[in-house]
Amino acid sequence: MTSADPNLYDYWPYRNRPKIEWPGGKKLAFWIAPNIEFYEFNPPVNPKRPGWPRPAPDVVGYSQRDWGNRVGHWRLMELMDKYALRGSVSLNVALCQHHPEIIEACAARDWEFFSHGIYNTRYSYEMDEAQERAVIEDSIRTVQEATGQRIRGYLAPALTHTPRTMDLIAEYDFWYTCDLFQDDQPQPLKTRSGKLVSMPYSLEVNDVITYGALAMTPTRYADVLKRHFDELLAEGAQSGTVMCIPLHAYLVSQAHRIGPFEDALAHITAHKDEVWFATAAEIAGHFRENYWEQSLADIEAKGCKRAGTGFDDAAA
User: Fold this and answer.
1) Pairing outcome for strands 153-154 and 187-188
2) How far apart are CA 200 and CA 217, in angstroms?
3) Do 149 and 110 meet the contact criterion of CB atoms below 8 Å apart?
4) Which residue ranges does the record assign to the NodB homology domain (predicted)?
5) Nearest-angstrom CA–CA distance, 135 and 127
6) Pairing of strands 241-248, 28-36
7) Which fold is adopted by the domain 28-44+55-302?
8) pTM for the full predicted model
9) Distance of alpha carbon 133 from alpha carbon 297, whole angstroms
10) How far is C-alpha 305 from the geometric centre of its chain's CA atoms?
11) CB of 195 within 8 A of CB of 293?
């Protein structure tokens, strides 16, 4: 590792890679990631980041996110049912105890679950290895007990990491991480063990960014989703691409926003002949089984392979 590059993946030019074909010859693998989260009202203090942007007690921030668990998720589930779309749930696993009704409803729909940490107010910063292992093991155990599923994906809580995060989740036989944003196709990551795939997630079409940071109108957000989809679908004719829509019910499911979001889903699902509607685990599994080895071979053949693994000096 150098100070300019964590060496988590090799540079791999987008054009002229081995062609990816999704099941059925589909051009684009599409998945939706509802973030089902729990924000503690008074979380433990982390020295690197406050739990809430406003001073405590922040009853406004807490209750806004609580609206998502009380109203938003149910509205979003019903909309996704209408278009026969399954979710891959980015889950704060403590929600299995706080609101089991939501977990049961998602499991009944055959949705996938992956870990987004315990709470979205407990960050990975400053964790030692034993603490981070405990979070990962808790995630696996809690979701398995609640749903019967063995989770295969990881999105670090509030996108906070340590230098050892990728190596640990690979060691625990996770198949994919959503924490990197370097590509529109899956890519093998450089971990000490396992076969960990960087799964295309998104900040660009993530509703936290579009509604929070960019203050888009609902119709503008719907237009962005359609144009993002159209371009990735067109490029998928050359080699299969991936599109994810990361969602937060406290934002996208508001009454004045859900209609324009439905317009985007109607546009996307009108392309059933060209799109593989899948879960993230299904996409990662297909890539690991069919394209892992040839991707590594192509990276090496192009002279892009570098020695070592991610943060190898820092994680030692």
Assistant:
1) unpaired
2) 25
3) no
4) 70-173
5) 10
6) parallel
7) TIM Barrel (3.20.20)
8) 0.96
9) 32
10) 26
11) no
Q: How many CA atoms lie within 13 A of 282 on its CB side?
A: 17
Beta-bridge partner residues of 247? 34
Contact 69, 95 (CB under 8 A): yes
Amino acid (one-letter) located at 271: H
Would you call 22 exposed, middle or buried from its count of C-beta atoms within 10 A (0-12, 13-18, 19+)? buried
Q: What percentage of residues in the chain have a pLDDT greater than 70? A: 98
CA angle centred on 56, ends 52 and 58, rounded to 5°: 70
The pLDDT assigned to 2 comes to 63
Per-residue pLDDT of 124-173, as tens digits, reads: 999 999 999 999 999 999 999 999 999 999 999 999 999 999 999 999 99
Which residue type is seen at 202? Answer: S
90 beta partners: 35, 114
Q: Please give the structure tokens belonging to residue 226.
A: 């359609």
Q: Is the pLDDT reported for residue 313 higher than 70? A: no
